[in-house]
Structures are given as C-alpha cells and as structure tokens.
Amino acid sequence: MANLIPVAKTVGSNRMVPTISIPYPLGDPNTSKEQQWKLRYHRVGVALDALETDIKEQTVFKVKI
C-alpha cells in the first residue's frame, strides 16, 4: 500500500490529508462496515478542517489511525 503525500508535496499541493492507500483512500475493505464508516467520517472531517484552515505553506494535516 502506498500513500501519495510525497507526490502531493512534489507537485506543490497546499493541503494534504493522509489516507490508507491509493486503491482505498477512505477505508480498508477487510474491516467491518462500522469501522469503515468511522474512518470515512473522521477523514472527511479532517479534510473539511483542512479547507477551513488558513495556511501559508504546504501542510500535511494529521489523522488518527
């Protein structure tokens, strides 16, 4: 599984939210539906916070695992 944060930094993305992997950015199909929902809910919340945050440089927003 690979994460795209290094690629996002290279191309100059300002706001980055780490994900699980390229094929499954919002969940792991090997987990229960409830765990997938919780992960998706959390990641979308982090992404919305990232959009609301005033930034001056490239920022990787932390997510809980």
From TrEMBL:
Keywords, alphabetical: Oxidoreductase, Selenocysteine
Domain of life assignment: Bacteria
One Gene Ontology term of the molecular function aspect: oxidoreductase activity, acting on X-H and Y-H to form an X-Y bond, with a disulfide as acceptor
Name under which the protein is recorded: Selenoprotein B, glycine/betaine/sarcosine/D-proline reductase family
InterPro entries hit by this protein: Various_sel_PB
